[in-house]
Amino acid sequence: MAEEKLLTVNVVTPDGSVYDEKTPMAVFKTTVGELGILPEHIPLLASLEIDEVRVKVPGTEDKFDEIAVNGGFVEFSNNIATVVANSAERKENIDLARAERARKRAQERLEKARQEQNIDKQRRAEISLRRALNRLNISKH
């Protein structure tokens, strides 16, 4: 049986490395759509949405590691996919109660900004809400 080809996925934030594993496939949600990367993919650079990065666990049919990423970008070259994000959390490290509190605060800020008709505050609250919902969705998979 041929050995499975693998690529490396690194997820880093200003606080350090969040994820560093080898995989046969990784899936990223970019600003222009979903992108799957296999070993020996052509080099690329893409902006990421607030969403999850899914990394296939080697030797399994359908098991994936899931990482909540709050934007950033992915760069792929030399069989290494490096995600640089302001913040990221592995599924198993997400504090569900904290994420729920963040969602509630963001919804309250969004409602207040809408009442004040403050577009800047509204945009920031919407981003905070998307981040909280992303963490909640991933933690519940």
TrEMBL record:
Recorded topology in the membrane: Peripheral membrane protein
One Gene Ontology term, aspect cellular component: plasma membrane
Entry keyword annotation includes Translocase: no
One annotated GO molecular function: ATP binding
Residue ranges of coiled coil: 89-125
UniProt keyword annotations, A-Z: ATP synthesis, Cell membrane, CF(1), Coiled coil, Hydrogen ion transport, Ion transport, Membrane, Transport
Xref: CDD domains: F1-ATPase_delta
Domain ATP synthase epsilon subunit C-terminal, chain residue ranges per copy: 92-139
Compartments reported by the entry: Cell membrane; Endomembrane system
Pfam families xrefs: ATP-synt_DE, ATP-synt_DE_N
Domain ATP synthase F1 complex delta/epsilon subunit N-terminal: 7-88
Domain of life: Bacteria
Assembly and interaction partners: F-type ATPases have 2 components, CF(1) - the catalytic core - and CF(0) - the membrane proton channel. CF(1) has five subunits: alpha(3), beta(3), gamma(1), delta(1), epsilon(1). CF(0) has three main subunits: a, b and c.
Similarity-based family: Belongs to the ATPase epsilon chain family.
The protein's role, per its UniProt record: Produces ATP from ADP in the presence of a proton gradient across the membrane.
Record's protein name: ATP synthase epsilon chain
Organism: Liquorilactobacillus satsumensis DSM 16230 = JCM 12392
